[in-house]
Amino acid sequence: AITVGCAKSASQRSIVVSGKQISPQPPHAGPITVNFKLADAAKPLTGAHVTLEGDMTHAGMAPVFGEAQEVSPGQYHGQVTLSMGGDWVVLMHITLPDGKKIEEQMDVPGVQSK
């Protein structure tokens, strides 16, 4: 769970990113699909804007980018194209409807070459 805000604040929000999945499995170089759910205090979180950033775990490689769309309340689905085999990390840059930003990371190890 990711908590946004100050612990002493009455407006503290508890944003949860769950159900993170990547397809195809096992992942390989080329387009991959990222699926996940967003919830705020167990209610589906709708209206978030999500960009995806794929980074290799070793230095010197350019990141790749994509976007995720809301496909049903609180369920997001997006694509990013991995340029080569190896170990990747996908960062989800999430902008909430109220403008707050959170980040979630998903490890994608052992991506196979084409």
Secondary structure: elements and pairs:
Elements: E1 2-4, E2 13-23, E3 30-40, E4 43-44, E5 49-56, E6 64-72, E7 75-82, E8 86-95, E9 101-111
Antiparallel strand pairs: 1-2, 2-3, 3-4, 3-7, 5-6, 5-8, 6-7, 8-9
Short description:
By secondary structure, the chain is mainly beta. It has strands at residues 2-4, 13-23, 30-40, 43-44, 49-56, 64-72, 75-82, 86-95, 101-111. A hairpin with a 6-residue loop joins strand 2 and strand 3 (30-40).
Key terms for this structure?
single chain; elongated; 9-stranded antiparallel beta sheet; 0% helix; 114 residues; disordered N terminus
Question: Could you describe the 3D structure shown?
Answer:
The protein has no helices and 9 strands. It is mostly beta strands and 114 residues long. Strands 1, 2, 3, 4, 5, 6, 7, 8 and 9 form a 9-stranded antiparallel β-sheet that branches. A hairpin with a 2-residue loop joins strand 3 and strand 4. The radius of gyration is 15 Å and the shape is elongated. The protein starts with a strand and ends with a strand. 22% of the residues are buried.
